[in-house]
Amino acid sequence: MDGTEGSGGQPGPAERSHRSSVSSVGARAAADVLVYLADDSVVPLAVENLPALSAQELHRAVREVLQLPDVALEAFALWLVSPLLEVQLKPKHQPYKLGRQWPELLLRFTDAPDDDVAMDEPSLQFRRNVFFPKRRELQIQDEEVLRLLYEEAKGNVLTARYPCDPEDCEALGALVCRVQLGPYQPGQPAACALREKLDSFLPAHLCKRGHGLFAALRGRGAKAATGEQGLLDAYRQVKEAVGSEREATLGTHYRAYVLRCHELPFYGCAFFHGEIDKPAQGFLHRGGRKPVTVAISLEGVHVIDHREKHVLLGLRFQELSWDHTSPEEEEPVLWLEFDGDSEGTPVNRLLRIYSKQAELMSSLIEYCIELNQAAEPAAPQESAPGPRSAPSPSQPPAQRPKLRRQGSVVCSRIQHLSTIDYVEDGKGIKRVKPKRTTSFFSRQLSMGQGSYTVVQPTDGVEQD
Fold first, then answer.
1. I need a labelling partner for 246 at 20 to 30 A (CA). Which of 33, 189, 222, 294 fits?
2. In the sheet where 86-88 sits, what is the strand order?
3. Strand pairing partners for 124?
4. Residue 73, exposed/middle/buried by CB under 10 A (0-12, 13-18, 19+)?
5. What is the pLDDT of residues 270-305, one digit of tens each?
6. What H or E segment, with its residue span, contains residue 259?
7. Does residue 145 contact residue 139 with C-beta atoms inside 8 Å?
């Protein structure tokens, strides 16, 4: 299943969507299907022969109701989502059948207790396609498509699924203010409006009121201000489009929000739940495990500490090797290998991620690499000289350094990881890009072409 992900350890859209779309609908001649959008609105569909209906057919029906252009076919996908598991569907998948198989999928790919499995039921959602390149988003002009991308990105920012620095939260929140409250006008009671709806503009951890850290930060001056004052200052600075009527529409601000999110290295990722070893601490060298979220996209892999709301490790595909192991009597593990330094000696580092979704993550990494390799021959043509093609691939990288500030939440924190370090034959490791010359694993960026291995349900689960 493409883009299968688990969200067990991180609040996100799944926690707002614990409702039925397809799995409890009887197999009758005609049935209503509810498809949820990123803003929690619903698209009701009247369909024939629901059990045999494919995701592609439902996708087309949603596009017709919303009157979306052809680009929506690639930009969005249908997902089955619950608080325990999130699955991006292939066009050929049959949502009704997968809904019926949901308990078996939960037992295989999550650690949820039996009672939770019995009560869990997925909803059908229309969300961004994990495999849609960010550079293609730069070419989108349709306002409704931009609004759907904006709403999904906003939800991920507000729930801290996308960790952001306070400065970026304020800039993004200011764009939300512009969309919801209109242009900033001096003298209007904007501060009151922001205070009443602060959690609509900023993540919860930046909405603390009264005393403590929030008040202390707010009192340090304009540069360090967060919360109400920082948001208000950023709101004042939102630029209004000048020109044609089309440029003055909300689409301008939807696009600005999405482009700002492009600077986040985990934008558009599929998210998985796992655990990593904590570094040994104290006299008894106690460690334990830390819950993490693993974010995988076309660009690489990020391991995120959701509780602390920052990145622990970020790797592009050319910087890592990987594999997964699933011993019968032990936990499944996704292994990530990358170059490091130990007291001045170049070493290879192994990070062990415990997760029942290790095989799914490994398959997704492999498929993303294959897509990138297939797209490489077309890259020179896309970046050929010309007023329209040149800015597309270069714009996000040009913006990204803005996030490389000291202590940024998007920077890796290797010191917080417990890794296995080694040097082959006692010799230093020399990297020859894009291929890693020495690796504990054989699965690397330079791997040969293959197919994305679909993880099939366990025996007894219906096949589509």
1. 189
2. 42-48, 30-36, 123-128, 76-81, 86-88
3. 35, 80
4. middle
5. 999 999 998 877 655 567 899 999 999 999 999 999
6. helix 251-262
7. no
Q: Which residues contact 137 (CB under 8 A, 6 or more apart)?
A: 75, 149, 258, 262
d(CA 13, CA 5): 13
CA torsion angle 253 132 36 12 (round to 10) = -80
Sequence length of the chain is 464
* Structure tokens given for 216: 């202390």
Q: In whole angstroms, how far apart are CA 236 and each of 164, 175, 199, 204, 271?
A: 21, 10, 19, 22, 34
Residues 6 or more apart in contact with residue 297 via CB below 8 angstroms = 130, 266, 267, 268, 269, 270, 368
Q: Alpha-carbon distance 89 to 98, whole Å? A: 9
DSSP characters over 93-156: --HHHHHHTHHHHHHHH----HHHHHH---EEEEEE-TTS-HHHHTT---HHHHHHHHHHHHHH
**Strand 123-128 relative to strand 30-36: parallel, antiparallel, unpaired?**
parallel
Reference 451, options 90, 96, 77; nearest CA is 90
**Strand, helix or coil at 418?**
coil
